[in-house]
Design brief:
globular, 4 strands, alpha+beta, single chain, two-stranded antiparallel ribbon, 1 helix
Length: 74
């Protein structure tokens, strides 16, 4: 069994690539399918059982909106 290492990556994408990834994600969710995405060189497999939520943060000078997908590894 391979060792799982902790990771915290934030990656910017050009707008057309970001839109394409969101469309693929929406299609996978709508069709009840696993979603696959590569982020900073690592392929991630999001299972159908994943949970989805939206987080909004507001600070003095900026705001942040995050679409989060979480799941437990088996």
């Amino acid at each position: 069994m391979s060792k799982i290492t902790e990771r915290d990556i934030e990656k910017d994408y050009p707008l057309p690539e970001f839109v394409a990834k969101l469309r693929r994600l929406a299609d996978a969710i709508e069709n009840g399918e696993q979603f696959e995405i590569q982020v900073a060189g690592e392929r991630i497999y999001v299972p159908v059982r994943a949970r989805y939520n939206i987080e909004h943060e507001r600070g003095k000078d900026d705001e942040e909106l995050e679409f989060q997908i979480t799941w437990a590894r088996k």
